[in-house]
Design goal:
By secondary structure, this protein is mainly beta. The chain is built from four helices and 28 strands. It has helices spanning 2-21, 23-37, 112-115, 261-264; strands at residues 42-44, 48-54, 67-68, 72-77, 99-105, 118-123, 130-133, 142-147, 153-158, 163-167, 173-177, 185-187, 193-199, 202-207, 213-216, 224-227, 230-234, 238-243, 249-254, 268-271, 277-281, 286-290, 295-299, 308-309, 315-317, 323-328, 333-338, 344-352. Strands 3-27-26-25-24 form a five-stranded mixed beta sheet, with no helix packed on it. The protein is globular, with a radius of gyration of 24 Å. The protein starts with a helix and ends in a 14-residue tail after the last strand.
Length: 366
């Protein structure tokens, strides 16, 4: 019996030793140890984690009283982007809220991959951070971003206006335009075409089905909504509504022409996903456009600028995603929080999947 006992003990020791030499087992043990040492952290992979922190006080608006809201939001610590989950079109849970998309280098280390610009996304409530694509890693800057209405394609304009498209379904990158050009881009309502600035006063479209590029005869601006067969575009001095098929003008909603050029020029502009409302402002005035009614409200004080405008103009946000600032424009509430511990943004964030959850940016009636 003692000999059999010794054999069993030896076998158990061998199994344990084999387990210790298994890299996956060692990684799991290391992750478990970290989690035990830092119970406030939620680990994502071996080297990344987030913590929940309260939102902060923020003075935001132009002599506009807003109620500061305090609640916990994730703050992300991403050391190894390769370990971070990628956005997955088949994961319906990622698309139950509208989402922000932005270009971010997650690390300032000497690691070329980790310090390179990549495109990321997260829900409007700060949760579900996802890596969209690392195809931009060699760029020094991402100047503009846009996402197709079906969420499948993400397009970016890099330094000098060079433009590319990433297909989330196939992982393919298409280089549409390799020469210096303006930055504006716009998707068709059916997500087939990406319209873009080809050169100064020259415009083209990329066909996602054929890959062909052809010239078009209408002007492109990023602050445009394509919806219900119409294009609603925020221009320098107002909003233009045209038939998306014929390009014929349906309506023009202009600001007060008695103002000087500087007073009526829209330096900051945004439009909601359905093209029902738009915002424009400059140092002198704010302008709120009700496109359905064909009206514009001019304001001197008591307004909140909207660099990103949600459905029905219920929510708006600043476009810098490192420090997220969201305003409930219906109930005059504001949330501000630090989404990332380190890293560097390039360009401005955008909104996509904007009609999810009926356009509301938080769940549970917040």
């Amino acid at each position: 019996m003692s000999a059999l006992k010794n054999i069993l003990l030896l076998a158990l020791f061998s199994i344990t030793l084999m387990g210790c030499n298994d890299p996956e087992s060692a990684a799991a043990e290391a992750a478990q140890l970290k989690a035990e040492q830092h119970p406030e952290r939620t680990y994502v992979g071996e080297n990344n984690y987030y913590i929940m922190e309260s939102s902060e006080h923020a003075a935001f608006g132009r002599k506009k009283e807003l109620k500061v809201m305090y609640q916990d939001f994730p703050r992300y610590f991403v050391e190894k982007a390769k370990e971070w989950p990628k956005e997955d079109l088949n994961d319906a849970s990622s698309y139950d809220l509208p989402r922000f998309q932005f270009a971010w280098a997650n690390s300032s280390s000497e690691d070329e991959y980790e310090s390179g610009l990549k495109i990321w996304s997260m829900k409007t409530d700060g949760t579900d951070l996802r890596l969209v694509t690392d195809a931009t890693i060699d760029l020094t800057a991402v100047r503009n971003l846009t996402r197709s209405p079906n969420n499948r394609y993400v397009a970016w304009a890099g330094s000098g206006g060079h433009k590319s498209v990433y297909d989330l379904k196939t992982g393919k990158v298409s280089n549409m335009h390799k020469f210096t050009s303006p930055l504006d881009m716009l998707w068709s309502e059916d997500s087939r075409y990406l319209y873009f600035d080809d050169a100064i006063n020259s415009y083209a479209r990329w066909d996602s089905e054929t890959g062909e590029i052809s010239e078009i005869d209408f002007q492109i601006r990023t602050a445009t909504a394509s919806f219900d067969g119409k294009r609603m575009t925020v221009l320098d001095f107002g909003v233009l509504v045209v038939d998306a098929n014929t390009n014929e003008e349906i309506n023009w909603i202009g600001v007060d022409r008695s103002l000087s050029m500087n007073e009526r020029s829209l330096d900051i502009s945004s439009i909601d996903p359905e093209g029902r409302y738009a915002w424009g402002s400059n140092p002198s005035f704010g302008f709120f456009f009700d496109i359905e009614k064909g009206t514009v409200k001019q304001m001197v004080d008591g307004f909140v600028p909207a660099q990103i405008l949600g459905k029905d103009a219920h929510y708006s946000a600043l476009s810098k995603m490192t420090y997220v600032t969201i305003v409930d424009r219906v109930e005059d509430k504001v949330w501000s929080w630090r989404a990332f511990s380190h890293g560097a943004m390039s360009g401005e964030g955008i909104l996509y999947n904007g009609l999810a959850n009926d356009g509301l940016w938080f769940k549970g009636g917040k």
